Amino acid sequence: MTYQSFAHYYDQLMDQAPYEQWLYFTQTIIKQYQSKTTSILDLGCGTGEISARLAKSGYDVTGVDLSSEMLSIANQKTQERNLSVTWVEQDIRTFNSSMKYDLAVSYCDVVNYITDPQDLKSMFTHIYQALQTDGLFMFDIHSENYIEFLTNQTFAEVRDEVSYIWFCDEGEEPLSVQHDLSFFVKNDRGSYDRFDEFHEQRTFPVSFYQETLQQIGFDILGTYSDFSTDSLDEQADRIFFVCKK
């Protein structure tokens, strides 16, 4: 799945996303486990909001995404903010680099877009290979509870410039959801153009992610929920994994 037309309106519709909480969580874990981190790989970076915040905090950041539209917006954004980020258009399931990174992150439920277990294992394997020895990997997922909540829900928002209606239907695989998204963008004539996109997400039990990561060679340093660095509540909306090579 890649964001296409939606990429141009993503930031407007995600203006309430908790980017500062992702940044704080990352910095807290770095201080706890890898204080000498300098290079960070942001997988599924989208329009670069997290990458930009990490770069502003002084890290050497590489943002990876499959969507050229998203990366174009991310690049423009960091240029306007006078920030330096390296952008790479590549599939995170098969990410390959000659560089080794101190830390890899993948936030905003990017990993839930990897719906096939073998693709998920491939992604984790390539990340493992891209890390320095003792490097860290942090990512989040929608919990089983949250995927079940989304199923058969409809969401909508009306704004002057862009509006959307979002149908969430039960997917074919267990713990999966299909997103049918239609959004309406005001044009120069004062009428609205319609764009449609289809996305699919899937989650797995926490134990499945842990076992897959350990099979590849990662040590699980911690599993947390909803930006807390203290404990795990599997009924929370968002689950975080912190791993070490």
From TrEMBL:
- Give a yes or no for keyword Transferase in this entry: yes
Q: Which GO terms describe its molecular function?
A: methyltransferase activity
List each copy of the Methyltransferase domain by range: 40-135
Q: Which domain of life is it from?
A: Bacteria
**Keyword Methyltransferase appears in the UniProt entry:** yes
Share an example GO biological-process annotation for this protein: methylation
Q: Which Gene3D superfamilies match?
A: S-adenosyl-L-methionine-dependent methyltransferases, Vaccinia Virus protein VP39
Do you know which PANTHER family this protein is assigned to? TRANS-ACONITATE 2-METHYLTRANSFERASE-RELATED (PTHR43861)
- Name under which the protein is recorded: Methyltransferase domain-containing protein
Tell me which species this is from: Salinibacillus xinjiangensis
